[in-house]
Amino acid sequence: MTKQKAQIAIIDYGFGNIKSVANAIIFLGAKPCIIDEPSKLSNFCAAILPGVGAFGPAIDFLKSKGFDEHIKDFINNGKMLYGICLGFQLLFTKSYEHGEFEGLNLLKGEVKKFEKSFDLRVPHIGWNNIELSKNSDSLKMFSGISDNEYFYFVHSYYVLPQKCEVYSSSCKYGVDFCSSAAFKNIWGSQFHPEKSGKKGLKILSNFIEESLK
Amino acid sequence: MLKVRVIPCLDVTNGRVVKGTNFLNLKDAGDPVEVAKFYNDNGADEIIFLDITATSDNRNTTVTLIEETAKNVFIPLTAGGGIRTIEDIRKLLNAGADKISLNSIAVKNPEIIKQASEKFGKQCIVAAIDAKKISQDKWNVFVSGGRIDTGLNALQWAKQVEELGAGEILLTSMDKDGTKNGYDTELLNKISNLVQIPIIASGGAGKLEHFAKACLAGASAVLAASLFHYKEFSIKEVKNYLISQKIPVRCQ
User: Fold this and answer.
1) For chain A, what are the domain ranges?
2) What is the DSSP string of A89-144?
3) Complex-level ipTM
């Protein structure tokens, strides 16, 4: 199968800038399929969970629509998932954004707020460089991308995974945080690959390639 | 390390990019989709679209413009001008905008900042403040494309929009806008010391050193329009200069 035929599900649960992600997928020669019905997920080999906004309402909505169980089945069947920004945070165990919320728990870890300080403006908005991990999943995710490249971030909360092997890259903003994760078929990034120019598009291209293997 | 962003701003009216002086005397500067694509290919860190006639002419911002631009532009897009409701914001975000800039409506109904940031996340809500110096150490907030003095103190308003949940401030000096005499660094300095959210400096860039001065005054991003549109400086030239001044920027 060629890349042109790849169909990528984009999960629409009312909290994503779905259009930008869909535009990037089209640009890369694949076909984005926006789905708002969880049962349709099983028709695809790869899915993207986008997301902007607050963790609590997003996870509540995802669960109320029944996406949580279908996403778990999707992962258990070895299919590829990519979480972006809030969608990345939702993959983890728990968030402390405006309270305490249980995430999808596909990866173990917590979501915490950047502590404000004099020289650290929050939200963390803009282009920051990331340090790539050396594990095999990271190499797949960042194939063709060199270390220390810049990606576009816009967030006030960051992910702290429980285990180091989940990190595919890390970034520094007051603290060291997890800028992206890759663990088997679960990928995700705090930065927006669809808004990070050519380097970001390359990651999405690597994701499409991987889903066709 | 987080980089200072260099942002070209596209003031749009009737589907064309325009630029004037002190918010008046508008000149044509090209097709917005083409102009955005050009900046995307030439190192811009972000692009801001402002529909500058939207508020005064009482019509909606061009959702289709954002839609067309977002097909080929894979860096952050901010849309502003004429936004009145949560529904307007949703439409623009769905069209491919990443951030929404609120100006007149926020002054009229400050609660919209709170509602929008709770609904869509504070990271996508930019409070645009058009400020004009009215006396020593005092700047007022103007709305409707700079036509109406609200009587609001710009410093207090900046603090208030942060408290309401804005994720960023787009600070335009009306005194400096279009003059090429440099950003209002005095105002930038005061507001950047007052708030914790990032500030985009706007209005007055004319020389390379102006960009560096704005950064030193506390700006997280520097915006310019005519300077880039008429190719007086390229984004690359601005970035090279900033690097020479030891200010970190993203290079492609």
Assistant:
1) 3-211
2) HTTSSEE-TTS-EE---SS-EEEEEPPPBTTB-SSEEEEEEEEEP-SHHHHHHTTT
3) 0.89
